[in-house]
Every structure is written in structure tokens, then in C-alpha cells.
Amino acid sequence: MNQPFTLALPAGRMADESIEFFERAGFARFSKPRQDRSLAFLDDSGKIRAVLVRSQDVPTYVLQGGAHAGITGRDVLEEGAYDLTAPLELGFGQCRLALAAPAERAAELLQSSHLRVATKYPRLAMDYFFKRGVSCEVIKLHGSIELAPTLGLSDCIVDLVSTGATLKANGLREIETILQSQATLTIRRAAYALDAAFIQDLLSSFRSALAATQ
Fold it and tell me: What is the pTM (predicted TM-score) of this model?
């Protein structure tokens, strides 16, 4: 492999956790200073490159060949239904995609015949309500989803939840978990053929690190 093996990582906390995981697995060590604003950097061996992108863009970078592999949330992969492999969940970045509504409406929400749903996950939301025979109008937002019911924009929301504190602060109650999510390794299918030995070493080191924590 002449060029560095490139991994797309979601900028922010998950990137830091990913880099820590790489070191724990003995896969790569990055000495990037925390104040460095570079969006692409090599590991100490010069053979592995990390690029920092938005979590939602990780699959696109991998699918279009900008990266050999990437790490993003299971929620992102399920929403996009990308033609990528996702061989391993990595045990960090846990959260859940959940249905939530104003506390006073939560109990009878799913008895409604039609709902307005605010979400960043239109495909997963539509699929969830379709399976329950509930008609819904999806209102796609990119942030501050919790405000939508308060402002009369929607009846409920489908959004990621970690502790539930933000829901509670905005008068919302979690009704049901739609999807459990965590950091997930995703690999472009062509990489298995073009970089077979490297991919096998990567998977082996990651599996060993995961087994050591169980």
C-alpha cells in the first residue's frame, strides 16, 4: 500500500475516543497536539491518516473513495442505508434513537392516526411509524429538535438521546427506543480486495481490544 490508509472520523468527542481506541488496540498512535486545528494528520508511523469530518459525512467519504474506512454512529449508517460493510461496533459513543413527546401527550401519542414528527432521521422515523400503522408527516430539521413540539411545529420528535437531560429540560418524555447506537467501524467493499492484508490486521487488532474489555 503506497498511500496512507485513510480513516474518516467524526470531528469531536468520538474522534478522540476513536484515537484512544486505536492506541489501545495497538493499531495506530497519533501524536496530534490537541490545539492543532488540522483536519487531516498521520499517525506516528506515517502509514495511517485520520481525516476529521462531520459524522453524517463519514459514510460518503468512505463510499466515494475519499477514505478506506471510517467510524460513525450506527444511527448514521442505518439512516443512510449505505452500500458499505459495518463489521464491528466499538463499544463507545453509546446513545439511542428515541421517540419523545411533550409529557402531557406521551401516554396516548401512538394512538393517534396521524402525527407530525420533527427529526434528523426521516427514513428511520417513517419506517418506525409505518410498521405501527401510524400516518406521519416528517419535518426534517438539522438541530434543536427538542424545540419543535414547544413551538407547535410537531407533535413529537425522533432524535438521539444519551442521558435524557435535554428532553426533560424541554418538557419532553421519552416514549420508546427505536435504535440503539454506538461507534461503528465501516469499510468500503473495494478495500477488502485492494488492501486485504491491512484490513485483516485492522479487524484482528480491533477484535482483540474489544475482547480484552469484556
Answer: 0.91
